[in-house]
Amino acid sequence: MLNLGDRSEYILLAEDNSADVELVREALADRAITHKLHVVDDGERAMDFIQRIDRDSTLHCPKLFLLDLHLPKRDGEEVLRCLRASERCRQTPVVVLTSSDSPSDRETANRNAALHYFRKPSTLEQFMQLGDVVKNIIALDARARTEFAS
Question: In sequence order, what E strands does 5-136 have?
Answer without folding.
Answer: 10-14, 36-40, 64-67, 94-98, 116-119
